[in-house]
Amino acid sequence: MKVPHPGTPSRRPRPPRLPLPSLHAAERVRGAGILEESTGDGCGVVLWESFRNVTDWAATPRARRTGDLFGPGAAERRTALLGSISRTDGCLRRALETVRDLLADPAGAEPRAVAYACTTVAAWAAAHGRPATRFYFAAAGAACVPEDARQAYDAGCVARDLARWDAAEQWLEYALAAAKRRRDRVTQAMAVIGVGNAFYRQGFYHRAREAQTAGLTLARKYRLKEMQARAHHDLFITSAELHEAERAEEHARLALQAYGAAHRNVPALAHDVARFWLELGHASRALTVVTALLPHMKRPIHRLYALSSLAWAAGGCGRQEAFESAWNEVWAAAALPGAGAAAASALLQLAYGAAALGEVARAEAAATAALRIAAERGEQEEVATATAFLDSLSAGSPSLVSACAADIAEGSNDSLAEEFVQTLAVG
To answer: Is a pLDDT exceeding 80 seen at residue 399?
Structure first.
């Protein structure tokens, strides 16, 4: 991915070329992922055909969107297929009926209405655990309104979340070019920061920081406070990964200031910073922040993350009572079906807290459970972490602290912890 320089002289760019609505170059059957995710239910075929209808229509020049584009009887056949969609999925059915109407009158279909229908299907797919379907319809919606950079940005983010890096690159770069062409500075900054996030997820931390810094510069130039906050937040995470503790804390402080007390992202930032301090071995500072954070974590999976961090911090501070309370809640929450990807990580943090208290048997039990869950889910990083921790327990020397812990002395930045506590109290 190319990282744009915000100081480049302004000139009217050429219209960017719309990417193909596919997840990878070797995709032989367009939209095949929709069918793969729909085994065992009746809506896979109608979803797949609707996706192909929309992308064919969007790729056809307006002058050629005539009544015979899809052949005679196409709308009637689609009406029959729509019977496979449950009446309880009203939003999905209405969105697919919009595509059905497109088959009947290709010339009269309104691009934004079709794009909205695709966005509705993408949202339905996200809620029903169908990530590939979500991408295909996000991309189809973007194809309907190629001038809308935000639609393309959404498609790029979905591809990035699926670790389809080539598709993510193409859609984010398209979003960037489209936003620049229309002087949509917010989406332009979002796309640059999104490129940085994609680099980060691939482990290219220096390239990530370059893109995130470019996004920050752009956000400052156009006084986009929200984008400044996001860029500082991402730069905090990247700096932490690069073991640049002081720089990371400065970005965290600036992100907090830019977000402001009532912003929805403040709890996430607070938890990121608390985890960072835990990994540095600064349990007291982390405990202060996580305790203030916990009332803000309403969703079960978010509360699980916060409780497990609280258990680790309480163990590190020798706070037995707080640890016991968190220990019981985390075990219960991690056993729920919705715990998903959070379960192994949460139990590992329980293990760290138990080990810090010298309770080796409990640490081993939690880490063993984490290893089992991670192995079942194919979470290789968590498998490696849990295995290494169990090995260190057997050797009698569990390693819980990052190598960069010496970069900040305990107590040197309690003012930042206090800023978080005060902000969370207001928010």
So the answer is: no
